[in-house]
Amino acid sequence: MSNNNLLSDRRFLPFFMTQFFGALNDNVYKQALLYLVTFSLISWHGSMDATVFNNISAALFILPYFLLSFLAGQIADKYESAALIRRIKNAEILIMLLVAVSFFFQWFWGLLIALLLTGVQSTFFSPIKYAYLPKHIPERQLILANGWLQLGTFSAIIFGAILAGLAIHAFSLSVAEAVSLFVLLLACLGRLSAQYIPKTTVADPNLILRLNPITESIQLFRYCQHTLGAKTLILGISWFWFLGICLLSQLPKLVADDLGGDTTVLNIVLALFAIGIGIGAVLCKSLSKNEFSLKWSRLASALIAVFLIEFYFCCISNLGQLTSAQSLFQSVSSLRFMADVLILGALAGIFVVPLLSLLQLRSPPVYLARIISASNISNALFMILASVFAIVMIELVGLSIPSLFLTLAALQIVAWALLQFASHTR
Q1: Is 258 exposed, middle or buried (0-12, 13-18, 19+ CB in 10 A)?
Q2: pTM across the whole model
Q3: Residue 348 Cα distances to 147, 154, 412, angstroms
Q4: 219 burial via Cβ count (<10 Å: 0-12, 13-18, 19+)
Q5: pLDDT tens figures, 387-409
Q6: Cα distance between residue 164 and residue 161, in whole Å
């Protein structure tokens, strides 16, 4: 398998498309539901405020990662991955049927239940996803494979928001029909691609499932502390999500309120960030030259701090009103703004992919999915902390959004120093 045909290899392409369609479906559904509530395109949700709904939906999606990750990792280590993925995709189709029925009968709480179930589905898919790669992808291709996964994931997050709007406005159908048909189509495409995922070896078929979430999660983290470098790698990956949530959650407000941009401008900016992450993630293969180390993560970590500072000065400069897509290309300052977003995304991709690859490589194969589950719990915690941090800094402390970016730069310098220390004392 060479660099050029990884995406055409039967061991990778069906798996990549399955995870891409799944991530895209999750985000199309979440964003469409938020869009409907925000713009009152459904009148049967009562008096629920869009901001309140956004917080509730985020909590519903993340909650299963806390409650069920310990079990998801055990199941992924005990049973064959391809069969598990197909069952998860079957469940996704049923969940999207619930979405369609809930729209038809105007059952708002049914839509929230479906949102919770998509979080459950993602919780069980995630450890399978990252444990699958080392079983089928040669070590020399592992960094590139992880790069493509990150590209697919973040493309799904950003383009899911864009497609949600298209699903509502681009068809001569009712809102309920358009969204329901779209998410059902994506679920069926994911199930179709899952059919071609090759069978994998089972990590630990004799594993006895333990169902106590508290004791099992504690033991899981204790195990990670004694696994070579796992604790540092997990914290690094979680920090990536902390930064990502802070940036993604503030860019819409920055574009709309500070720059006067419309939804087209916002979509372009968010797409640039996602494309940047994908470019950086895929570039890791060429940069690392198959060397599994934290060298590029450390460099990217330092440069992220530099460009967060640069982004701060860019945002407080005379950017003007970026009111349309054309205005993004009419001045040096606006081009600088777009370049900063793209570069920050690329550096984030370069930062996280070596961490993911090293976690897969250094973890014992019989325990890999459970270690990934521990990482998922940590990631969910850091996502919540990111949201709380942004709210406290902006609403209580009174920082502007550019000043929040400057604060993140200071925190990033601390994170870089800790990564330097951890990598030298490992």
Answers
A1: middle
A2: 0.86
A3: 11, 11, 12
A4: middle
A5: 889 888 988 898 988 999 999 99
A6: 5
